[in-house]
Write a structure and sequence with these properties.
mainly alpha; globular; Phosphate transporter; 17 helices; 76% helix; transmembrane; Phos_transporter
Length: 506
């Protein structure tokens, strides 16, 4: 008798267990995606509770609590979007890990906001809307709430599509839209708006040109020299000292402008002192760190790590000091008007309002910041330590020089423009530099047509490769440029719509 082979069937229990496991895994993935929004909502609730605690039960409590939640929402979005420009290049260059960048940015953003965030803020956003145009307290409160909510919604959308935008421009657009809805077109300071529009072009162009010039200098004086290490010892301390002088001036005039007031010779003395002190320290440090290094580009990059980390921290501090006003300025104005029933051109910022702005920016960075940080640092163009250093240095120098010349610039647009400048310059340099071609040809001759791993991207390219090789992703260029151009008008339109809705329901 022939025995039949046993039929192997998967038991029903096993099938059910497998399905249960799959459902649990899917649920776990979905729940992880909901953690960040859930924590964000908890922070909004906390902001409202904090506001009610300080304000107490009175007729204006509902308005102030609502405004506090909207201000907290704006602070979260500032952290999610705007902070990426400060730490993104260092992360893309692998001078900082994502975790390290988040910690450094969160600490220094909060410190900048709380230490140097300022205690006085213009309620009508630096003269964009004439105060007498919205002198009615109820209209003013609705206008500020509409401006705050519209700008927060736009920055949130920009973060979702992966576009770093200027939160200052978003707030300006919100104020303009609400002001027009409340008092008509004549209430807007249109010459000032013209300067802001000019900054859309001026900021990225100047930042890009400055970054390209710095990268050209580094390539000429260090990278394509026979003795790279000796050249780095000579020039790198000067570059670091220049960045230090720029940052010290930037911090004194922008980040610490509410604590110290220096102008003219005093400001120049700060810059010169910073330059000399940092040059002396970095001269010793670079010489010590470069001892025994191989004469390779990979070795050079390590020398830029510490300056990049320091620049990320300083930029975060200055950003926290400056841009916290985008979240707490309109909120502070709403609180002051709701409590006094009187519109003032300047208001004091209560400590609890500043806490909402400071910790909201840090929380938004920790919960939602990695997406934009990754995009800024890695997806626009490939950054290494030297290129990221060019971005940091050019951004600081551009903002300072533009301030001296009275040119309107955006730090966000300047930093992103610098990244574009680095990428486009590399495209041009790869195709046209005789120095690069001569250097690489000599290197390949000396090494038997072999070049080291970190020089492969600099190898001579054929005409077809040059056509197809794009070092800047064009899709990001178009997305970011479109977001920049539309930030003010979309924020304005949205703000006007929200203002009308609020006035109808109030």
């Amino acid at each position: 008798m022939i025995e039949k082979a046993p039929v192997t069937r998967k038991q029903t229990l096993d099938k059910d267990l497998t399905k249960i496991i799959q459902v649990e895994q899917a649920t776990s993935i979905l729940s992880r995606n909901l953690i960040a929004p859930g924590l964000g909502l908890l922070f909004l609730a906390f902001a409202g509770i904090l506001a009610s605690f300080y304000v107490g039960a009175n007729a204006s409590m509902v308005i102030i609590v609502s405004a506090a939640a909207i201000g907290a929402y704006m602070a979260l979005n500032i952290g999610a979007n705007d902070v990426a420009n400060n730490v993104g290049p260092a992360v893309g260059a692998k001078a900082l890990t994502m975790t390290g960048a988040l910690i450094i940015a969160a600490v220094f953003e909060s410190s900048g906001a709380l230490i140097a965030g300022g205690d006085v803020v213009d309620t009508i956003s630096k003269g964009i809307i004439a105060p007498e145009a919205v002198a009615d307290p109820s209209n003013f409160v609705l206008a500020m709430m509409a401006a705050l909510l519209s700008s927060a919604l736009w920055v949130n959308l920009a973060t979702w599509i992966g576009a770093p935008v200027s939160t200052t421009h978003a707030v300006v657009g919100g104020v303009v839209g609400a002001g027009i809805a409340a008092a008509g077109f004549s209430a807007v300071n249109w010459p000032l708006m013209g300067n802001i529009a000019l900054s859309w072009v001026v900021s990225p162009v100047i930042g890009g040109i400055a970054a390209a010039l710095v990268l050209a200098f580094i390539k000429t004086t260090i990278i394509y020299q026979d003795d790279k290490i000796a050249s780095a010892r000579r020039w790198l301390p000067l570059l670091i000292a220049t960045m230090a002088a720029s940052f010290s001036t930037y911090l004194v005039t922008k980040g610490l402008g509410n604590l110290v007031h220096l102008k003219g010779s005093a400001l120049l003395a700060v810059a010169v002192t910073s330059f000399v002190v940092v040059w002396a320290i970095s001269h010793v440090h670079v010489r010590k760190q470069s001892a025994g290094m191989q004469n390779r580009n990979q070795s050079l990059r390590k020398l830029f790590n510490i300056p990049l980390v320091i620049s990320a921290a300083l930029l975060s501090f200055a950003h926290g000091a400056n841009d916290v006003a985008n979240a707490v300025g309109p909120l502070a104005a709403i609180v002051a008007v709701a409590q006094s029933d009187n519109v003032s051109s300047h208001v004091e910022i209560p400590l609890w309002v500043m806490l909402i702005g400071a910790f909201g920016i840090s929380l938004g960075l920790l919960l939602f910041g990695p997406k934009l940080i990754q995009m800024v640092g890695d997806q626009i163009t490939k950054l290494n330590q030297m290129r990221a250093f060019c971005v940091a240095l050019s951004a600081a120098v551009t903002v300072i020089v533009a301030s001296w010349l009275g040119l309107p610039v955006s730090s966000t647009h300047t930093a992103i423009g610098a990244i574009f400048g680095v990428g486009f310059f590399r495209e041009w340099y790869t195709a046209n530099s005789k120095r690069r071609k001569t250097y690489l040809a000599r290197r390949m001759t000396e090494n038997g047509n072999h070049i080291e791993k970190d020089e492969k991207e600099e190898r001579p390219l054929s005409a077809e490769e040059i056509v197809h090789r794009k070092l800047v992703r064009r899709a990001h260029v178009m997305t970011i440029a479109a977001a920049w151009v539309t930030t003010v008008p979309i924020s304005a339109i949205l703000s006007a719509f929200i203002f009308y809705v609020l006035r109808m329901v109030s």
